[in-house]
Design brief:
Elements: E1 8-12, H1 16-27, E2 31-35, H2 39-46, H3 57-66, E3 70-73, H4 76-79, E4 85-88, H5 103-112, E5 120-124, H6 132-143, E6 149-153, H7 163-168, E7 173-176, H8 180-189, H9 191-194, E8 200-203, H10 205-236, H11 240-248, H12 269-283, H13 288-311, E9 320-324, H14 340-349, E10 353-357, H15 362-365, E11 372-374, H16 378-382, E12 387-390, H17 402-408, E13 413-416, H18 423-427, E14 432-434
Parallel strand pairs: 1-2, 1-4, 2-3, 4-5, 5-6, 7-8, 9-10, 9-12, 10-11, 12-13, 13-14
Length: 439
């Protein structure tokens, strides 16, 4: 791939956002240095070992390390000379009041300020509340009043498990700035992307900051909406799978995020919906729909255990539950706000013993769960179980051998919380079966 030596990039933060951003830009030919305070993580990355589970990332890291475009260090001062664009991609965890905690963003700006030399674009990739760019700019000007720089908003729209393809083939690129020099630099930086077709949208910084929250809140709304419709389908004897398909054919609605299930989780939707509520409250604006989305999702995750208990005749006391899936979605090891955890905890409170298997997320789950037996595969998990609960739609679980499962289980019960199977395909093996929103 042609190298683009005209721009040099530094990313602050080698977590999910900063790492994927830096690695993908290096694969487009730019010189990129990823900086992180975690020495162990940097050591891993320089050895080509991945600190996160993301399909395709390891191959890109190794290739760009080998070809001399990608570097990892703990030393920001060593990375900064000749840098044209600095991406801040550090975490913005949820504070106790639901707001976004900006301590890592501000710490990055504070460390960066005295190192600026020549015109530098500081692009905030982290998901941050409206006005954060103003705060970062003010802090840097206070520390380095002579520095020549511009702070821009450049939110990420990466789905865990599909982050590489989302970065390289995005629906859109959003850049928030009113600075002409920064606009020119960012247009040059994203030129390889514009050649592929996605629109590059320039707007003001505050609009760009709010856009990310609005987008995630809307997607969360679609999920909570179809989950409530699924409950209505169960009450009236309708089929939510056919209903969602018919809705999705309307291009005003679209089919994405209309799959019913046990509720949304992960690092973005739960945190960003609460942060949006905090932004609205502080601005004196209403966000009643988003507030109800959060409430519906919290209630749903807690209620899924009841569906399993009902399948088992009203009690799981003394029973063994086989939990297939712990991550909040497939193709990731992320268990943050996963629906699987409250389901397990509620089943344990009801007297059940839980066995679990996940292809990637068991190590991440162990600090959060107690009294769970972790298994080597789906069949090991099902051995002696009274009911199987499919909580994450991994491809590993899409073609289970139900004859083999039935021979190993104490009772044939299957709770399909992701509607992976057709009811008739499971029931013909003698299983009692329930799913979401289907007769």
């Amino acid at each position: 791939m042609t190298r683009r030596r005209d721009l040099k990039i530094t990313t602050i933060g080698a977590g999910y956002v900063g790492l994927v951003t830096g690695v993908c830009f290096s694969d487009f030919g730019y010189d990129v240095t990823c900086v992180d305070k975690n020495a162990r993580k940097i050591e891993q990355l320089n050895a080509g070992e991945m600190p996160i589970f993301e399909d395709g990332l390891e191959a890109l890291v190794k290739r760009n390390l080998r070809e001399g475009r990608l570097y990892f260090t703990t030393d920001l001062a060593a990375a900064m000379p000749d840098t044209d664009v600095v991406f801040i991609g550090v975490g913005t965890p949820q504070a106790e009041d639901g707001s976004a905690d900006l301590q890592y963003v501000m710490a990055a700006a504070r460390e960066l300020a005295p190192l600026l030399d020549g015109f530098t674009v500081i692009a905030i990739k982290s998901t941050v509340p409206v006005g954060t760019g103003d705060k970062v700019e003010a802090l840097i000007r206070e520390i380095a009043p002579e520095a020549d720089f511009a702070v821009v908003s450049n939110p990420e729209f990466l789905r865990e498990g599909a982050a590489i393809s989302d970065f390289k083939d995005p629906d859109r690129v959003i850049i928030g700035t009113n600075n002409d020099k920064a606009r020119d630099v960012m247009a040059r930086l994203y030129r390889p992307f514009s050649a592929l077709g996605p629109p590059i949208v320039f707007t003001d910084r505050r609009t760009s900051e709010l856009l990310k929250y609005a987008a995630n809140a809307f997607l969360a709304t679609k999920i909570s909406f179809i989950n409530e419709i699924a409950d209505l389908c169960e009450a009236v004897g309708a089929n939510v799978t056919d209903l969602a398909f018919g809705m999705g054919l309307d291009d005003r609605i679209g089919s994405k995020y209309l799959a019913p299930g046990p509720g949304y989780g992960g690092s973005c939707f739960p945190k960003d919906t609460l942060a949006l509520l905090d932004i609205a409250e502080k601005a004196g604006a209403q966000a009643r729909i988003v507030e109800q989305v959060v409430n519906v999702n919290d209630t749903r995750k807690r209620s899924m255990a009841s569906k399993v208990i009902d399948l088992c005749g009203g009690s799981v006391s003394g029973m063994t539950v086989a939990m297939l899936g712990l991550a909040f979605k497939p193709d990731t090891d992320d268990v943050r706000e996963t629906p699987a955890f409250p389901i397990i905890e509620n089943l344990q409170r009801a007297g059940a013993t839980v066995r679990a298997f996940d292809p990637a997320a068991m190590a991440e789950s162990k600090p959060h769960l107690t009294d769970v037996t972790y298994c080597s595969d789906a069949y090991d998990c099902a051995a002696g179980a009274d009911v199987i609960v499919l909580a994450t739609e991994w491809s590993h679980f899409a073609a289970l051998d139900f004859h083999r499962l039935g021979e190993q289980m104490a009772a044939k019960r299957f709770a399909d919380l992701r509607n992976v199977y057709r009811p008739e395909d499971v029931r013909r093996y003698g299983f009692e079966y329930v799913s979401i929103g289907r007769p």
